[in-house]
Amino acid sequence: MKSGFLAAVAACSLMLAAPAMAQGVKIGILNDQSGVYADYGGKYSVEAARMAIEDFGGEVLGQKIEMITADHQNKPDLATSIARRWYDADGVDMITELTTSSVALAVQELSKEKKKVDIVVGAATSAITGAACTPYGFHWAFDTHALAVGTGGALVKAGGDSWFFLTADYAFG
């Protein structure tokens, strides 16, 4: 499934980034590689992407796939700075993973400005596909709405009628 996902990502990036067609497609994986979410994706996600690129022989639609990575350290300002450099100077066609909701929202806004694809895999705020939705952004995972509806619905069906909420007070919550 991971390699099929990567092929779809690369093909989509090639179609949306006509100037990049001569050189192939360059994918940036921007995630938490050193903080609290490092085990959620981090270096393991980077390795999975490397393996998927290798499984496809390093190309899709006859074009070379290149990958670069960086650690956003769960800081939206750092993530945006990296993403801007990748888009403007390094020729990145698409950025993915974007662990941490605040980072995902910031990079998605920049991707919209640059008309580049971003695929959020590690963040779950429903704002990604709600209020902050863009024509260039994709949300590949669950979101807070789905988590609440699925869990809450199952608990009600099981007879649950008393509720206590512990809520995160940041972009995810």
> Total number of β-strand segments?
6
How far apart the termini lie comes to 29 Å
Share in helix: 40-55%
Structural class: alpha/beta
Overall outline = elongated
Rg result? 17 Å
**Strand order of the main beta sheet, please?**
2-3-1-4-5-6
Number of helices: 5
Textual characterization of the structure:
The chain has 173 residues and is α/β, with parallel strands linked by helices. It has one domain: Rossmann fold, CATH 3.40.50.2300. It is built from five helices and six strands, in the order αβαββαβαββα. The protein has helices spanning 2-16, 42-55, 76-88, 101-114, 144-157; strands at 25-31, 59-60, 63-71, 94-97, 117-120, 137-139. A hairpin with a 2-residue loop joins β2 and β3 (63-71). The longest helix is centred in the first third of the chain and has 15 residues, at 2-16. It is elongated. It starts with a helix and ends in a 16-residue tail after the last helix.
SSE topology sketch:
Blueprint lengths: L1 H15 L8 E7 L10 H14 L3 E2 L2 E9 L4 H13 L5 E4 L3 H14 L2 E4 L16 E3 L4 H14 L16
Parallel strand pairs: 1-3, 1-4, 4-5, 5-6
Antiparallel strand pairs: 2-3
Helix pairs in contact: 1-2, 3-4
